[in-house]
Design goal:
The complex is a heterodimer of chains A (314) and B (443).
Chain A lengths: L18 H20 L3 E4 L4 H14 L8 E5 L7 H12 L3 E5 H6 L17 H12 L3 E3 L16 E4 L27 E4 L7 H11 L10 E8 L2 E4 L12 E7 L12 E2 L5 H10 L4 H5 L9 H8 L3
Parallel strand pairs in A: 1-2, 1-4, 2-3, 4-6
Antiparallel strand pairs in A: 5-6, 7-8, 7-9, 9-10
Helix pairs in contact in A: 1-2, 6-7
Chain B lengths: L15 E8 L6 H11 L5 H13 L8 H4 L3 H6 L6 E6 L3 E7 L6 H9 L4 E7 L6 H12 L4 E7 L8 H18 L4 E5 L23 H7 L12 E3 L2 E5 L7 E7 L4 E3 L3 E5 L3 E10 L2 E3 L1 E3 L3 E6 L10 E4 L7 E10 L10 E6 L2 E13 L19 E12 L12 E5 L6 E7 L17
Helix pairs in contact in B: 6-7
Classes of the chains: A alpha/beta (314), B alpha+beta (443).
C-alpha cells in the first residue's frame, strides 16, 4: 500500500499529545495491538461519533504504515443525521481501509426484527440483532468499541477485553479478572470479545485528544441552529424520524450534540459552543453526563444499559 | 451552558495520571469516602445524583446513599453488595485519577489483587473505633505482595472518636509497623471523616493537631515513580508492522510497549528467543521517529539486521538481557473454584508470550497476615495465595516481580474453560549489577 493517508498535516517529529493523554494513548495502542494479534477476525465498530473517530486515529497510531488488520463495521440504523454517512465515507476513503455496513433496515426487510411499538420509534435496541447477525455472517471474533467507563455505571464494571457468549450476551457476574495489562483473549467457537481501548478515557479526555490531534469531527458537535421538539425531557431534532405532535413544544434553538446516535433518541443540548475550546470549557463545567443529557434510551430504568448489554448491545 | 466555571478542568498537558485502588469493607465507610472524593471533586453529575436520590428514597433511606453510585449492577443494588471491581474516573486541576474500587468481603483477595495490580497507590480504610483488624493486616499484606508503591491508610470515622489525636497516633503507629514488616515502600496515614468531609478534600477544622495534607491533596502530590529503572530494556513484541513508505518499500518494524527501562536509537540490543545481537535502527511512531522512548511508550522498532522475530519475542538491552527460564518459582493468587494440585496443566501468559505449563509442586500457602508460609497444603483453592513451581514447555523471559511488575507478572489460563485461574508473581533474585551473573533459580 501507499504511505498512510493523514487527515491532519503531517507532524514533523513529535505528537502534541502530552501528559495523561499520552499515557492513555499508549495504553490504547497497546490494547489495539494485543487484540489484533490474538484474534483471527476482528472488526472496528464505527458510528461516526467522536469516540469511534478516536478509535480510527488510535488504530493509525498502532498499525501505520501498515494497513489496519481489520475492517471497519458500521451498524446503520437508517436514522442518521444528514452529515454522518458522507462524513463516514470521506474518512474511510482517506484511510484507504475497508468498510462493511450492516443495516437495520435490511434486518427489518428480512423480518429478523420489527419496529418497536409507539410513536416515532427508536431503532437503538434493534441494532443489537443486526450487530449479532453481522458477527455471525462475517465470523468476527472480536469487535473494537468506543465504550468508556465514565459513560455509565454498568460500563464502569466492564473489562477491557469483555467476553460475549455464543448468544452475544454479557455476564457481568462472571467476568474474567483482568490483571496488569495481561488480557486473556481465549474463546470457544461462536463466542466473541468486545475490546474497549478507551475504557479509561472520560468525555473531557476525548475532547482534549481531538484538540491535540486536530481531528475533524462532524459539525453537529458544535453549536448550530436547528428546529427541535421537546420530548421526554430532551430536545430532539425535527426530521423524517421525529414528527412533532399536537401540543409538543417546537422551537428553533442554538444547540449542539454531545453524542451521535439514532436521531429519534439522541437529544441536543442548548449550547453556544462553536469552537473546540468552547466545547472543552462546556464539557469541563457540564453538570450532566453525556448519556443523561442526550440519550432517551438510558432514561428508562436504573439498569437500562446493563440490560441492553446483556442482550449483546455495544 | 457555557457557564462561569470556565477552565476548571481543562485537559492541561502537564497533568499526569495516577492509578489508585481502595480496599476496605462497607462498614469502614469506603463507599462514602469514594462518594465524597467524587462529589467534592465534582466528578458526580447532576443526573447521577438525581438517580441516586431517587433510588435512596425508593429503598426507604433518608440520607443520600453514596454506595449506590459505585454499585453499578442490578444484582448489587438489589442485594446491597458490591460484586466486582469498578473503575471510576475523576480529575482535579493537577491530576487525572483512575480509581479501582474493590469490594472488601467475599472473594476480596481476587478482587483486591486485580484492583491493585495496576495501582500506583492503594488506600486502605480503617474504622477509628475498631482500629487495626485482621482484615487490615490482610489488606496491607496484599498491597505489599503486589508491590504497590504507595500505601495510604485512611483512618476514618474520626468524628466518632472525638477527633482524638492519641487514638489516631496509636492506629498510625500500629499500621506503620505492620507495613514496614511486610516491606511496603511508603506509608502515609491520614485522619479523616468521610461522612463529614473532614480531611478528604477540605482540611479539617476539628483536627488542628494534624499538620499533613487532606487525602485529595496527598493524592495529587504522590509521586508516580519509575520502577527501578536502569539499563535493563525490556520490549515484548506484540505485532510486526509491515508496509511501504516513501523511503522504505519493504518496511518492517516490531511493535510493542517499553515495559522496563528505555530504548534509544543506535542502542545495542538482543532479540529473544534467538539471542542474536543487533542495533536499534529507528524508533517509529505515527507522529515520526524518536531518539528515545521511555517506559510506557508504545512504539515500533526497526532493527539494523533482518531477524526472525515476532509476537512473543522480546527486544532487550544487550548488556543485561533476561535469562530464558523454563522452570519458574512464583507466588500464585488463586482465583478458580477448581484447586491447583501437582500435575495440573495450564497456559502461562507472560507479556505477549503464551506457553504450556505443568505444576510440579505446590509448596505451601501463605499466611495472609505475615506473608510467611502457613505450613500446610499441597493444593490452593479460591482466594488462597501460595507458592508454585512450574515447568514450562517453552522458556519465558521474565524478571522477578520484585524488580518489575510488568515483566515479573503472568496469568494462568485453564485450557479447557479459558478462565483466568491465577495471577503469578515470578520470583527471581534481583542481580545487583548490570552485568549478568546467573542465579540458581534461572536456567
Amino acid at each position: 500500500m501507499t504511505v498512510a493517508a493523514r487527515t491532519t498535516p503531517p507532524v514533523p517529529t513529535r505528537s502534541r499529545v502530552g501528559g495523561h493523554l499520552a499515557m492513555l494513548e499508549a495504553e490504547a495502542v497497546h490494547i489495539f495491538r494485543e487484540a489484533a494479534a490474538v484474534f483471527e477476525r476482528p472488526a472496528l465498530l464505527f458510528s461516526g461519533g467522536k469516540d469511534s473517530l478516536i478509535l480510527l486515529r488510535l488504530a493509525e497510531k498502532a498499525f501505520r504504515p501498515g494497513p489496519f488488520p481489520f475492517p471497519i463495521l458500521h451498524i446503520d440504523t437508517g436514522h442518521n443525521f444528514d452529515e454522518i454517512l458522507p462524513f463516514r465515507d470521506r474518512r474511510v476513503a482517506e484511510l484507504g481501509e475497508r468498510l462493511i455496513v450492516a443495516s437495520v433496515q435490511a434486518s427489518l426487510d428480512a423480518g429478523r426484527v420489527s419496529e418497536e411499538p409507539g410513536y416515532d420509534p427508536s431503532r437503538n435496541r434493534l441494532q443489537t440483532a443486526t450487530l449479532l447477525d453481522a458477527i455471525a455472517e462475517h465470523g468476527f471474533d472480536a469487535l473494537f468499541g468506543g465504550g468508556r467507563r465514565d459513560e455509565e455505571k454498568a460500563r464502569a464494571k466492564e473489562r477491557i477485553f469483555s467476553h460475549r457468549d455464543a448468544f452475544g450476551a454479557w455476564d457481568p457476574r462472571n467476568q474474567r479478572p483482568e490483571l496488569w495489562s495481561l488480557y486473556n483473549g481465549r474463546l470457544h467457537k461462536g463466542e466473541h470479545m468486545r475490546v474497549f481501548p478507551i475504557s479509561n478515557w472520560t468525555e473531557l479526555d476525548v475532547w482534549g485528544y481531538i484538540a491535540a490531534e486536530r481531528l475533524e469531527v462532524p459539525s453537529m458537535y458544535f453549536a448550530h441552529e436547528r428546529e427541535v421538539v421537546r420530548r421526554d425531557g430532551m430536545w430532539l431534532a425535527v426530521s423524517d424520524f421525529v414528527h412533532p405532535r399536537e401540543g409538543e413544544e417546537v422551537a428553533t434553538l442554538t444547540v449542539r450534540y454531545r453524542t451521535v446516535g439514532d436521531m429519534s433518541c439522541t437529544g441536543a443540548v442548548v449550547s453556544g459552543a462553536r469552537t473546540l475550546d468552547e466545547v472543552i470549557d462546556e464539557v469541563a463545567a457540564a453538570r450532566l453526563t453525556e448519556r443523561g443529557a442526550t440519550r432517551a434510551d438510558d432514561a428508562f430504568s436504573e439498569a437500562a444499559m446493563e440490560d441492553r448489554k446483556r442482550e449483546g448491545y455495544f | 451552558m457555557a457557564s462561569a466555571e470556565i477552565g476548571l478542568r481543562r485537559a492541561a498537558p502537564a497533568r499526569d495520571l495516577l492509578r489508585l485502588a481502595t480496599a476496605g469493607s462497607v462498614d469502614d465507610g469506603k463507599s462514602t469516602l469514594i462518594g465524597r472524593l467524587l462529589h467534592d471533586s465534582r466528578a458526580i453529575a447532576d443526573d447521577q445524583l438525581a438517580a441516586i436520590e431517587q433510588a435512596s428514597r425508593r429503598r426507604g433511606g433518608q440520607a443520600l446513599d453514596l454506595a449506590l453510585l459505585t454499585d453499578g449492577l442490578r444484582a448489587e443494588r438489589e442485594q446491597g453488595i458490591t460484586i466486582d471491581v469498578a473503575y471510576r474516573h475523576f480529575a482535579t486541576a493537577r491530576r487525572r485519577f483512575v480509581l479501582a474500587d474493590t469490594p472488601g468481603h467475599v472473594q476480596y483477595t481476587r478482587n483486591m489483587v486485580t484492583g491493585v495490580s495496576t495501582a500506583d497507590a492503594a488506600i486502605v480504610l480503617i474504622d477509628a473505633r475498631s482500629g487495626v483488624l485482621e482484615q487490615t493486616r490482610r489488606h496491607v499484606a496484599i498491597v505489599a505482595l503486589m508491590r504497590v508503591p504507595h500505601l495510604i491508610v485512611a483512618v476514618n470515622k474520626m468524628d466518632l472518636v472525638a477527633f482524638d489525636e492519641a487514638r489516631f497516633n496509636e492506629i498510625a503507629t500500629a499500621v506503620d509497623a505492620i507495613a514496614r514488616g511486610l516491606g511496603v515502600l511508603d506509608t502515609t496515614a491520614i485522619p479523616l471523616s468521610a461522612l463529614l468531609g473532614d480531611n478528604v478534600v477540605e482540611r479539617s477544622r476539628a483536627m488542628p493537631w494534624y499538620d499533613g495534607p487532606p487525602l485529595l491533596e496527598h493524592l495529587e502530590a504522590v509521586e508516580v515513580e519509575p520502577e527501578a529503572d536502569d539499563d535493563r530494556l525490556r520490549l515484548p513484541v506484540q505485532w510486526v508492522i509491515r508496509g511501504t513508505t516513501a523511503s522504505d518499500p519493504d518496511y518492517r518494524a516490531y511493535a510493542g510497549r517499553v515495559e522496563v527501562g528505555r530504548i534509544q536509537a543506535g542502542q545495542r540490543v538482543v532479540a529473544l528467543p534467538g539471542g542474536i545481537a543487533t542495533t536499534v535502527h529507528a524508533i517509529d511512531t505515527f507522529d515520526g521517529s524518536l531518539d528515545e522512548a521511555a517506559r510506557g511508550s508504545s512504539v515500533a522498532v526497526r532493527l539494523a539486521d533482518p531477524l526472525d522475530l515476532g509476537r512473543g519475542g522480546m527486544i532487550a538491552a544487550e548488556a543485561d538481557p533476561p535469562a530464558p527460564a523454563s522452570r519458574v518459582d512464583a507466588i500464585a493468587c488463586w482465583f478458580d473454584a477448581k484447586p491447583v494440585r501437582p500435575g495440573s496443566r495450564y497456559l502461562v501468559q507472560h507479556t505477549t508470550r503464551v506457553v504450556r505449563a505443568v505444576v510440579e509442586r505446590v509448596d505451601h500457602r501463605l499466611d495472609l497476615e505475615t506473608l510467611g508460609p502457613d505450613g500446610s497444603a499441597n493444593a490452593l483453592g479460591p482466594n488462597d495465595i501460595g507458592h508454585l513451581h512450574l515447568r514450562l514447555a517453552d522458556p519465558i523471559f521474565a524478571d522477578g516481580y520484585a524488580v518489575s511488575r510488568a515483566t515479573g507478572s503472568a496469568i494462568l489460563i485453564d485450557e479447557a474453560t479459558h478462565s483466568t485461574v491465577a495471577a503469578l508473581l515470578v520470583e527471581i533474585e534481583h542481580r545487583p549489577s548490570v552485568h549478568s551473573s546467573s542465579s540458581s533459580k534461572r536456567e
